[in-house]
Structure formats: C-alpha cells, structure tokens
Amino acid sequence: MNITSEQPKIIIVGSSSIDLVLDITHLPQANETVMAQKSESFFGGKGANQAVATARLGASVYFIGCVGMDPYGQQILRNLVDEGVNVGYVAESEDAATGTAYVASTEGSNTIIVVPASNYSLTTDHVAEAEKYFSTADLILLQLEIPMEVIEFTVRLAKKNNKKIGIYASPARKLSQEIIEEATFIVAKSNELAIIFGDEEREKILAKYPNKLFVRDDSNSTTYFNGSEMKYHRNDHDSLCHKIGMGDAFTAGFAIALCHGNTIEDCVHFGNDVSLKVALSRGSQSALPYLKDFFPE
Predict the structure, then answer these.
(1) Tens digit of pLDDT for each residue in 182-230?
(2) What gap in Å lies between CA 218 and CA 235, rounded to an integer?
(3) What is the per-residue pLDDT for 194?
(4) N or C, which end of the chain has less CB nearby within 10 Å?
C-alpha cells in the first residue's frame, strides 16, 4: 500500500443526516413496547460519512448534498466544515427538514429506518452548478440515499469528464446497466445483491464484474472476482459490535487507495482496515480514522 505526495480530489454527491440511536435489549415485535436504556445522536448519512472519511484520509473533498433550514442542517454543515470538507455546493431546502435516521441497536444488531427528507430535495441542477469542479477531480463517489435521477445525471457528468466513479449501492436499489458499466467500482452488501443485479447466484454476479464489484458482509469480509479466481479478505475483531457506517468506511478507504494508484488487492485490504476502525466505536463518523493512524509521520 503506497501513499503518494499528491492529495486526491474527491467529489461526493450524497446524503447527510442526524442518526438517533436507541439502545434496547431486544427488537420489539408487532404491538410491543420496549424500554431503551439510552438514546444518543450522531452525525450520519452515507454521503456525509464518506466525505468525512475521505477528508480524514487526506483527500480534498467537495460535498454536494441538501439539508433543511433547521438546527440539524446547521449542525451538519458546521461538522463538515470542521472536518475540512468543502460545503459550498450543499443546498438548503426551505420545504424539507434535514434527513434523519432512527436506529434500534441491540447486541451488535441494528434496525435502521431512514427519513430522507431534504436528501430527496437534491436535484440535477444542484449537481450541474458544481460541474466546473468535475474536470479536476480524481474520483466521484455516490451512494443511493438520493434521487436516482441525480445519481444517473452525476454518472453521465463524470463520464463526460472522464472521471473514475465509485458507488456504494446502499440502501439497495436496482441499478441501470448504464450506471453499472460506467462505474469504476461498486460496493454492495451480500444480502442485497438480488435487488441490485437481479436474482442470480452471488458467484455468477461477481464473475460478470471482475475487479469492479466488491461484496461485503457484517464480519468485515469482502469478496470479489479478480478475473481468474474469487478473492476473499476478512479482518474482524472481538469488539466488532458497532456496525453502523462500516460500508461507508470501506468505500472511503478503497477510494483513497485507488486514487493513490494501488492494486485492487491493496485497495480492498485498506478498505477493510478503515472499516474495522469504525466498528470499534459508536457512531458512523466518530471513530473514522486519520491517515496518520496507518502511516505515522
């Protein structure tokens, strides 16, 4: 794994939210009331998570998204600025509240309900306003918590500027063949492949997209096909109990390694290493590592 002297420039088009996490002893059944031991709030949203992650890993990051004109939106913007992320193209909606996610957490398992709110107010016009930055970017990162028409427009804009495209295909939605073909890499959860690619065996889907599709599961394991064989990389920890944000962290680590010209294998290993750090603490962003955690000066 090599880190060059160049600072990658990454544009992230995606979501931001406030995550409201409830600690409970078990997930409630229908018509059941349970008591929470604790409630906490964290910064989240897959786009914002990846923006903070890549910024901490040494990238120059531009975030394109949408928040509400409310206290949550202002908190998100201040946090991104504090993390060194450029928020000049984050829109503020007068009609929609800032996105939120409600997380029920019990014994290492999570149930998450997302309210997209202002994230679904993001439009193609918002992305088009930032087009001048696409020509100098090294990579465009996307997730699926924003309107599909915005994702498709961003992919075409990246293609027009001949830029690498990374997609974390979560929450799972059907991807068009155009998006799949234009993507440089796609990260997906193992239990969501059928939604994204259709109902085929995992190995058959992976074989169609060598060194492009990277399948993740909750044990911090990544599977991909390198063109000749299936490759598996797993590193976990006894304390792997905070699994929110692991996919975002992997995607960010993979993206940074790719921007520095590393092999696919090294990109996967670094993505797993970054993901593992997040799992050791609560919150999608709080435990995201810095580049110095891996490469001390």
Answers:
(1) 999 999 999 999 999 998 999 999 999 999 999 998 788 999 999 999 9
(2) 11
(3) 94
(4) C
How far apart (Å, rounded) are the C-alpha atoms in residues 169 and 166?
Answer: 9
Handedness of CA 132, 121, 66, 243 (dihedral sign): negative
pTM above 0.90, yes or no: yes
Tokens 């949408």, residue located: 66
Q: Contact, 32 vs 56, CB < 8 A? A: no
Sign, CA dihedral 21-22-26-27, equals negative
| Placement of tokens 């997730």 in the chain | 143
Q: Looking at residue 239, what DSSP letter applies?
A: T
User: Cα 200–206–208 angle (5° rounding)?
Assistant: 85
- Residue 215, strand partner residues: 188, 223
Closest C-alpha to 283, from 235, 237, 236, 249: 249
Q: What are the tokens at 22? A: 């409830």
Amino acid, single-letter form, for residue 159: K
Main-chain dihedrals φ then ψ at residue 284, nearest 5 degrees: -70, -30
Instruction: For residues 76 and 193, give the distance between their C-alpha atoms in angstroms, rounded to a whole number.
Output: 31
pLDDT category, 173, cuts 50, 70, 90? very high
C-alpha distances in Å from residue 122, one per residue of 108, 118, 262, 277, 283: 33, 7, 33, 31, 25
Nearest to 12 by CA among 222, 245, 251: 251
Flag whether pLDDT at 238 surpasses 80.
no
Q: Which of 248, 266, 273, 293 is catalytic?
A: 248
For tokens 């792997």, what's the residue? 240
> What is the pLDDT averaged over residues 70-94?
97
